[in-house]
Amino acid sequence: MRAIILSDTHGSRNKLCETVAALGDFDVLVHLGDGASDLDAVRPYINADIIAVKGNNDIFTNLPEWRAIELCGQKVYCCHGHNAGVRGKRDTLARLAREAGCSLAFYGHTHSQADETIDGVRCMNPGSIGYPVGGRAVIEMTDDGGETNIRFITGL
Predict the structure, then answer these.
(1) Burial class (CB in 10 A: 0-12, 13-18, 19+), 5
(2) Which residues belong to any copy of the Calcineurin-like phosphoesterase domain (predicted)?
(3) Beta partners for residue 76, in sequence order
(4) pTM of the model
(5) Engineering a disulfide at 3: which of 28, 100, 134, 137 sits with its beta carbon 3.0 to 4.6 angstroms away?
């Protein structure tokens, strides 16, 4: 299984389409909010499941603010992060993930890539597709024969 995790497209549908085209085949696309409606631009062109959560700018959507999902053999907490105070310390994010039974948390909101472990929870932010700080990137999560690999794909 190959999952792509991205965030904060903010109406940049062309950048989203370019990014998705550059990635090749994948099984799941996870959007961490702020531009979830931009997914309509890529739906016709991908053969993958799409999972999305609501960001602070996704006003007219009924998407949930967070989800605990199974990805590549891991239970993952997905949120935009604005309600978890991710611009400061990510302790609240880690606590919410643990309470949901997850050891991995994906979040957005800050537009900056991040990868840190807090109280046993790996917290990762792919950055922004629409307005990246430090360059456009996504997180790739794969399950190769029972081993989960997570890495940033940059230079898109």
Answers:
(1) buried
(2) 1-136
(3) 69, 104
(4) 0.95
(5) 28
